[in-house]
Amino acid sequence: MAEAAAALARKGLRAHCRRLCCGEGSRGRWGFQSIHSFYRFCSTGMAFESINKPVVDRIIRVDHAGEYGANRIYAGQMAVLGRTSVGPVIRHMWDQEKEHLKKLNELMISYRVRPTILLPFWNITGFVLGAGTALLGKKGAMACTVAVEESISHHYNNQIRTLMEDDPEKYKELLQVIKKFRDEELEHHDIGLEHDAELAPAYSVLKNAIQIGCKAAIFLSERI
Ligand SMILES: [Fe+2]
Ligand SMILES: [Fe+2]
Questions:
Q1: For residue 8, what are the domain limits?
Q2: pTM value > 0.70
Q3: From CA 169, how far away is CA 51, in angstroms rounded?
């Protein structure tokens, strides 16, 4: 009985919130809920006028998954090579990935985006990929870095193009974040090349295989 009353109260609060925040009731249930939507979030008071919510959801979800995966890759590399001469180089890149993930976590909350259900899978595969390539040696780890960072920066460029074509002003915050991250991923890519990534055993095969994996990870993380 008490549970039913509590559930009713929660339902009432949510309905009240939707009326206040989303205009429900005054313009019909889906009045503001077309593809381009007006959102004013109850918890933050933030307003996102006319954003393309499905597109923004997809962008934030996949970027969060990517940064999460990158953190796990560098964790795997550090587990193997942390005490070698390239330890500080990998540490520097990992520190930047930690900042990227922190920012994506914040964006997920403010834009109310759920993470991909594949995070536990990326947790393991990211670490195995980082540690596995690091076991090939310093050059193997750097080849992995080049392959992954090239894929991610290409992916960020696609997102920048999508948001710019829609409305650069509307997506100013997101664009700033993605451009900064894109530049830092390119820096990681160049660090990999400077540390002899191309001299890794079977560099082309390794790079292609990793990039096919990245494409699959991006495809899946955008959708589920
Ligand atoms: Fe990153
Ligand atoms: Fe990176």
A1: 2-49
A2: yes
A3: 11
The neighbourhood of ligand 2, an ion, using CB within 5 A, equals: 185, 188
- Contact, 159 vs 171, CB < 8 A? no
How many structural domains does the chain have? 2
What does the CA dihedral 104, 178, 207, 123 come to, rounded to 10 degrees? 0
Residue 173, domain CATH: 1.20.1260
How confident is the model over 39-85, as pLDDT tens digits?
444 444 444 568 888 999 999 999 999 999 999 999 999 999 999 99
Q: How far is the CA of 116 from the centre of ligand 1 (A)?
A: 17
DSSP 1: -
Q: Which residue reads 């990534």 in tokens?
A: 197
> How many angstroms does the Cα of residue 12 sit away from the middle of ligand 1?
41
Tokens of 150: 């090239």
The tens digit of pLDDT for each residue in 188-211 reads: 999 999 999 999 989 999 999 999
pLDDT interval class at 127 (50, 70, 90): very high
Provide the pLDDT confidence category of residue 8 given band limits of 50, 70 and 90: very low
Binding residues for Fe cation: 67, 97, 100, 149, 185, 188
Dihedral sign, CA of 134, 140, 141, 147?
Answer: negative
Distance between CA atoms of 144 and 210, rounded to whole angstroms?
7
